Amino acid sequence: NVQAQTEKGAMAAGGSISFGFGDDYSNIGIGAKYQYNIIDNLRLEPSVNYYFKKDNGSMWDLCANVHYLFALYEGLNFYPLAGIGVAGLKIHDHDWTHSSTGFAFNIGAGFEYMFTSNVSANVEYKYRICSGDFVPDRSLLTLGVAYHF
Asked: What one-character DSSP code corresponds to residue 41?
């Protein structure tokens, strides 16, 4: 069943908790993701994330990453990732609000472990480069779970 999770047409959906950190700013976020194997071992993962308000700022992103899965052991996969998307930052300061949006480019890697034939958990690190004037480049450390169907 583990091999079936890396074959063309395999699908999964799940959620995640992320810790975003950069030069001066860090916060925690939650997200949802969908995974679809385009071909054997090559997976597309669109996701949406919201990073909670901290120091008067909140962030969000909508991205699509590509993972290439390498089986390391029975049930354990390693994957490099790359992706693109849109990211935003909203600053709330009493009566003043400022929003900025920019393109996001991701690069990173992760590990996925299949606990059962339908349930997996993953940990990944990615670095996000953003094109927006005020949207910061940042590192993201994510823990996630997925249900495979």
From this structure: T
DSSP string, 71-127: EEETTEEEEEEEEEEEEEEEEEETTEEEEEEEEEEEEEEEEEEESSSSEEEEEEEEE
Of the candidates 97, 78, 79, the one whose C-alpha atom is nearest the C-alpha of residue 89 is: 97
d(C-alpha 32, C-alpha 22), whole Å? 22
pLDDT tens string 41-71: 999 999 999 999 888 889 999 999 999 999 9
Q: What distances in angstroms separate CA 105 from CA 31, 64, 83, 102, one per listed residue? A: 17, 10, 6, 10
Look up the pTM and report it.
0.90
All residues at 6 or more sequence positions from 22 whose CB lies less than 8 Å from its CB, including other chains = 136, 137, 138, 139
Amino acid in the structure at residue 90: K
**Residues in a beta bridge with 12:** 35, 148
pLDDT tens for each residue of 69-87: 999 999 999 999 999 999 9
